[in-house]
Amino acid sequence: MKKTLTANISGTVFHIEEDAYDTLQRYLSRIRSRVTGTAGHDDIMADIEARIAELFTERLDGRRQVVQLADVDQVIAIMGQPEDFTEGGAEGPLPPPNMGTGRRRLYRDMDDKWVAGVLGGLGSYIGMDPLWLRIGMIALFLASVGSLIPIYILLWILVPKAETAAERLQMRGEAVTVDNIKRVVEEGTERMKQGGQRMAHEARDLGRQWGTGVQRGSGHVGRIIAKLVGMALLVLAFSLLLGLVTGMVGGTISLWHSTWTSQDTGILDLGELLFASRTQAIWFGIGVFLLLVVPIIGLFLSGFRLLLNTRSPRWLGITLVVVWIAAFIPTMWGTARLASEFKRENSVLTEIELQQPTDGLLYLDALAPADSTGDWSVRYDDGELDVDLEGLHLDGDQVFGGWASLGVERSTDSLFHLKVEREANGVTPKAARARAMNIRYNHQQHDDVLSVSPVIRYPAADGLRGQDVRFTLEVPVGKRIFLRPGSTDIIYDIKNVNNTYDDDMLGRTWTMTEKGLMDLSTTPMPPMDAPPAPLPPDSLRKTASPIAAVVWRAPAKRRPAPAHGTGRTSSTAGTPTQERAFVLAKANLVPTLFNLVYQRLR
User: Fold this and answer.
1) Cβ contacts of 534 within 8 Å, gap of 6 or more
2) Relative orientation angle of helices 178-250 and 165-172, to the nearest 10 degrees
């Protein structure tokens, strides 16, 4: 049993054994005596203690609660002894920094920054001169018309800045030791002192040498540059405004075909499905519109000011800033509320009992993608099924959408299975599962024909929360499916050995093998076993029945059955009676020839 003490190291409380505490205290006292009188000694001690606290936290790792003497010895071995410090006043070049095995971390370099230190920190992280990164950033900025600005702002927000000496060392990949911490702090202090003196000298010299010339030429050149920048701002503002108007009008007309009547799904109906109410949807739309319009107005005002040398009223600029900030609040609130509704995803898996086909061949088709009344359809004018927002339809308190799909997999037994997975999102897994349970779908089976509808429906109160249905048809090995042309509305990305696209799989029979679906009419089968050797003539004479009594049956090809309820039919050459007669004649041809030979031998 050992006595423990409580120590506050850089704001973190540790329980430490008494002998370990004494060793650590002596170590810190020796360091403090070495750095006393050094510029920034308080920062050096603060960074050293922060690093020690970090190492202790890593050593404990949640498994232990008390710092032991072995932990202190290990930390001292990592940090280094105070006697190894490089004296700040020593003459001659400083020794190279101890790179050690430090792990690089991404920080914003505040000592080498132009705007926020993002590129300076990135250059230190990847070991590249930040100047080249800045040149590349400017080139990409001009090529992308400013689209990189949000990315830079996002990195500005997410990447922390290197405030302490330990963080600056980690940014460069150097070992965080006491000597390196002391060196970094001294370098920062010296850099600030030399930077201030250099700026003062450069400003004085520049004013003496170029003051007169700048006064004469800056006015003319500055006016030219201002007019060019003003024209560029006006072009940019006009392009953004044109894109905004085109997006609003095109999104309303082309995407959703909104007629603002009770017959079709309008923007307000769509907003009510996304948000809790139409009021929230309206406020969100107003906020997004103002967030986009206010900067465009600001670009127009700035462009006119630079190009025509006009000044806008002061109150106008203040009003635009206030309006933009006011629009930011409902927009962010609505975005957060909507994002929370998609926080969790859940699914419900069920199996539909199928009537097994008599000859191992199942025909797959799709039900007509329309509602029960037939008043509307989710097809384009060219007949293609619409699976986007245009396929969205409100019928009373029900939402309809042509979003279901079907895939094919190998069955684990000798039976056909149809499994249905319904998916939805919600704030919690329970809410997501409840929405998935509310999804309804249609299917029907007539004899050997299975028809599945691509249209799903669910209560409008559930909203648009990523509801989806995925059918999986499991086919046993050795059995077949025939994809009718109408099944193009429901099948999606069916894997097959032939690497055939979905549309090219239609109208063909596919057999399930150990490797997957295969079209045996185009894929050569492996060689079959040799037939058995014929019996000798003596044994033929001793048989009790003639050879013609042996039944030889050739498998008859079955043509696809007509579709039920879809109006589609599959046609083949000849009638069923003709095909049956041809098959029987071919099956009895060989036994008849053997009968003739047998009669001759007798």
Assistant:
1) none
2) 70
Q: Please state, rounded to an integer, the average pLDDT across all residues of the chain.
A: 73
Report the percent of the chain where pLDDT is more than 90: 17
Contact in structure between 436 and 424 (CB atoms under 8 Å): yes
> Residue 477 in contact with residue 514, Cβ under 8 Å?
yes
pTM above 0.90, yes or no: no
3-state SS assignment for residue 211: helix
Helix (H, G, I), strand (E, B), or coil: what is residue 152? helix
Residue 376 CA to residue 393 CA, distance in Å, equals 9
Amino acid identity for residue 367 in this structure: L
Contacts of 10 (CB under 8 A, 6+ apart): 46, 49, 50, 52, 53
The answer, yes or no, to whether residue 209 has pLDDT greater than 60, is no
How far is Cα 95 from Cα 307, in angstroms, rounded to an integer?
56
Half-sphere exposure of 360 (CA within 13 A, CB side): 10
- Position 110, amino acid: M
The 3-state DSSP class for residue 312 equals coil
- Does residue 241 sit in helix, strand or coil? helix
> Average pLDDT for residues 535-544, to the nearest whole number?
44
- Residue with token string 């509602």: 371
CB 473 within 8 A of CB 418: yes
Alpha helices (H) along 386-452: 429-437
More confident residue, 3 or 364: 364
Contact 161, 117 (CB under 8 A): yes
Distance CA 65, CA 121 (A): 35
Give the residue among 163, 195, 162, 168 at the shortest CA–CA distance from 180.
168
Residues ≥6 apart with Cβ < 8 Å to 426: 341, 343, 344, 346, 432, 433, 434, 435, 465
Instruction: Write out pLDDT tens, residues 54-73.
Output: 888 888 877 888 888 888 88
CA atoms of 288 and 307, how far apart (whole Å): 29
* Mean pLDDT across 537-552: 38
Q: How far apart are CA 494 and CA 583, in angstroms?
A: 33
Residue 379 has pLDDT above 60, yes or no: no
Question: What does each C-alpha distance from 246 to 236, 239, 252, 254 come to in angstroms?
Answer: 15, 10, 10, 11
Which helix (H) or strand (E) covers residue 297, if one does? helix 278-308
